[in-house]
């Protein structure tokens, strides 16, 4: 095992663990600011360090400190303390493990060996996801059961029944997708989506499986227990559902687990249906062939994006009334300076690449970085869809939820399998 | 080398889990220790380079079936006091051991007679999704279909039985 191998293993595992974790912070922020935006208010915008509010991101830090220093209560009536403590860990760990098989860039060829860009470079792909998602249910069941609380048990029952029943349409939507791609390996699926249909449409899952994508997204929403399927923690009925007895970091693990699960299922939806890391019309080979022109375009595009982003910061990061010694003016100036220094740094790196390193390994690393960026951008947008739906649709009733799952999604996904296989047999 | 350690660890865990299933009195403890057994069995399948069986063991047995059993235990909310007092427990256990001892002896003999191969016995790609699928749907298509009809019958039966109540 060479030094490069070890570095690549460490890098991939770090990516697989740290990216979902840092996305928790981003998603909590996005949820709050998104909710505020949809409800026409400001959201958390006062928390600051030396006057820097980072658009509300500092609020997360305050929340984290609050949760860490809260008293960690295990109520006296709980008999099975082991399961009570195990449950939040299970929820969090399973959510994090699901991300391990999702590819974030095409297979990277460096130093004569190839690296599959997944945290666990295995080819069982989607099966791993299905296996680990099943274990997430344990956490919910154990939490609800060991809380020994009526609300807890009700919430646990609802969540478990919901997750188990929505796994079926999800699995069936996957079956027709697998028939299209002909593989369970997520990296191969992503490579498949780099092709072009009729020579000009990107062959993304959403184009090939328009019905499947709807079924899968609905089922994924239900799997993550997000509104409109968050009966498990319906505040108006059962307080907080299965995590009603939890406090401090144990609650925080549930909370973070929910956001990690949301990130992972967004990443999975992107991987399966929205082209994964593929930039439309620019498959890996094309990108490699045109690495230099792409870099030049990037160097032109970066200042333009920076300019508009700066204008946006200037417009939004201002006081709405006259203030003496307005601290936000200084804040905005610092942000814009930071933004431009980032742009300049990236320009210098691009220039250095063009002048000294272009060709061979550097090209491949550049392409991999571009693909990672694309993947994260797509996942970010998909996460926004989650927030968007949460603050737009009201919660279902429980019988409605089960009816949608069993009477609408299940027949639709079966129909989808028949149509898909007929088309594949006829044309493939 | 690490394979050997992994094998011993997983084998130990699976035996411990199975023991827990029998010896724990509370159904939830029994179910959870059985989950440990099922997961370690999945690990053993993975050591045998049977990737698909590994995934299916996790999805079907450790994931779906056991979560349904846990769900039922939670739903009925069985506590220690609800359980019947079985006095003849140790008697049954001893009887079971006496009955199973010859079978265990037979198994040990089989294990002893296995060739001590150090070379890998499988060719590349063994146990992958594609390879198992090809074998399953070409050589074993008829048994596969018969088994799936059997499962369908069980499914329909469950629906009919459940429908009678309402």
UniProtKB/TrEMBL annotation, chain A:
Gene Ontology cellular component terms for the protein in this record: plasma membrane
MF terms (GO), sorted A to Z: NADH dehydrogenase activity; oxidoreductase activity, acting on NAD(P)H, quinone or similar compound as acceptor; quinone binding
Entry EC no(s): 7.1.1.-
Catalysis: reaction(s): a quinone + NADH + 5 H(+)(in) = a quinol + NAD(+) + 4 H(+)(out)
Protein's membrane topology: Multi-pass membrane protein
Enzyme category, top tier: translocase
Record keyword Membrane present: yes
Record GO biological process: aerobic respiration
The entry's keywords: Cell membrane, Membrane, NAD, Quinone, Translocase, Transmembrane, Transmembrane helix, Ubiquinone
Ranges annotated as spanning the membrane: 6-29, 82-105, 125-145, 166-184, 196-222, 251-274, 294-313, 334-359, 365-389, 409-427
Family: Belongs to the complex I subunit 1 family.
Record's subunit section: NDH-1 is composed of 14 different subunits. Subunits NuoA, H, J, K, L, M, N constitute the membrane sector of the complex.
Listed name of the protein: NADH-quinone oxidoreductase subunit H
Organism listed in the record: Desulfofustis glycolicus DSM 9705
Gene transcribed to yield this protein: nuoH
UniProtKB/TrEMBL annotation, chain B:
Membrane topology label: Multi-pass membrane protein
InterPro entries: NADH_UbQ/plastoQ_OxRdtase_su6 (IPR001457), Nuo/plastoQ_OxRdtase_6_NuoJ (IPR042106)
Entry's Gene Ontology cellular component terms: plasma membrane
EC number annotated for this UniProt entry: 7.1.1.-
Keyword annotations: Cell membrane, Membrane, NAD, Quinone, Transmembrane, Transmembrane helix
TM annotation in the entry: 6-24, 31-48, 54-78, 90-111, 140-162
Catalyzed reactions: a quinone + NADH + 5 H(+)(in) = a quinol + NAD(+) + 4 H(+)(out)
Cellular location(s): Cell membrane
Any GO MF annotation of the entry: NADH dehydrogenase (ubiquinone) activity
Functional summary from the UniProt entry: NDH-1 shuttles electrons from NADH, via FMN and iron-sulfur (Fe-S) centers, to quinones in the respiratory chain. Couples the redox reaction to proton translocation (for every two electrons transferred, four hydrogen ions are translocated across the cytoplasmic membrane), and thus conserves the redox energy in a proton gradient.
Family (UniProt): Belongs to the complex I subunit 6 family.
Identification of the protein by name: NADH-quinone oxidoreductase subunit J
């Amino acid at each position: 095992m060479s030094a490069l191998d070890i570095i690549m293993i460490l890098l991939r595992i770090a990516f697989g663990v740290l990216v979902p974790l840092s996305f928790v912070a981003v998603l909590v922020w996005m949820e709050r600011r998104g909710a505020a935006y949809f409800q026409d208010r400001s959201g958390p915008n006062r928390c600051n360090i030396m006057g820097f509010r980072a658009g509300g991101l500092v609020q997360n830090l305050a929340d984290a400190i609050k949760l860490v220093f809260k008293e960690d209560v295990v109520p006296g009536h709980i008999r099975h303390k082991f399961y009570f403590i195990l449950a939040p860990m299970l929820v969090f760990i399973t959510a994090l493990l699901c991300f391990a098989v999702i590819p974030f860039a095409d297979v990277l060829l460096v130093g004569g060996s190839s690296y599959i860009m997944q945290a666990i470079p295995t080819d069982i792909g989607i099966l791993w996801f299905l296996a680990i998602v099943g274990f997430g249910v344990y956490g919910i069941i154990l939490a609800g059961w060991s809380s020994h609380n009526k609300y807890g048990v009700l919430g646990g029952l609802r969540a478990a029944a919901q997750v188990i029943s929505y796994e079926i349409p999800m699995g069936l939507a996957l079956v027709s997708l697998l028939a299209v791609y002909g593989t369970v390996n997520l990296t191969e699926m992503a490579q498949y989506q780099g092709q072009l249909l009729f020579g000009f449409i990107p062959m993304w899952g959403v184009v090939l499986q328009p019905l499947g994508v709807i079924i899968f997204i609905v089922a994924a929403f239900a799997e993550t227990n997000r509104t409109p399927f968050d009966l498990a923690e319906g505040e108006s009925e059962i307080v907080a559902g299965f995590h009603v007895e939890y406090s401090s970091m144990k609650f925080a693990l549930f909370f973070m687990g929910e956001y990690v699960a949301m990130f992972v299922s967004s990443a999975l939806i992107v991987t399966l249906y929205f082209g994964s890391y593929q930039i439309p019309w620019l498959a890996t080979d094309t990108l490699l062939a045109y690495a230099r022109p792409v870099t030049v375009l990037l160097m032109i595009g970066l200042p333009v994006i920076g300019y508009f982003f700066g204008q946006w910061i200037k417009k939004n990061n201002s006081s709405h009334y006259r203030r003496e010694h307005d601290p936000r003016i200084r804040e905005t100036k610092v942000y814009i300076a930071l933004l431009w220094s980032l742009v300049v740094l990236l320009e210098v790196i691009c220039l250095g690449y063009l002048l000294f390193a272009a060709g061979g390994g550097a090209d491949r690393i550049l392409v991999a970085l571009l693909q990672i960026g694309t993947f994260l951008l797509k996942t970010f947008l998909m996460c926004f869809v989650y927030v968007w739906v949460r603050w737009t649709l009201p919660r279902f009733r429980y019988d409605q939820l089960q009816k949608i799952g069993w009477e609408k999604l299940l027949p639709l996904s079966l129909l989808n399998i028949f149509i898909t296989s007929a088309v594949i047999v006829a044309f493939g | 080398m690490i394979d050997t350690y992994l094998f011993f660890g997983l084998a130990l865990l699976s035996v411990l889990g199975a023991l827990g299933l029998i010896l724990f009195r509370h159904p939830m403890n029994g179910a959870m220790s059985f989950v440990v057994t099922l997961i370690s069995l999945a690990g053993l399948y993975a050591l045998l380079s049977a990737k698909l069986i590994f995934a299916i063991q996790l999805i079907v047995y450790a994931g779906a079936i056991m979560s349904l059993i846990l769900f039922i235990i939670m739903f009925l909310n069985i506590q220690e006091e609800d359980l019947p007092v079985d006095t003849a427990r140790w008697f049954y256990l001893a009887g079971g051991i006496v009955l199973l001892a010859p079978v265990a002896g037979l198994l040990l003999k089989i294990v002893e007679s296995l060739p001590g191969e150090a070379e890998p016995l499988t060719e590349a790609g063994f146990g992958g999704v594609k390879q198992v699928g090809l074998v399953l749907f070409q050589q074993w298509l008829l048994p596969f279909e018969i088994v799936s009809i059997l499962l369908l019958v069980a499914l329909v039966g469950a629906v009919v039985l459940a429908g009678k109540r309402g």
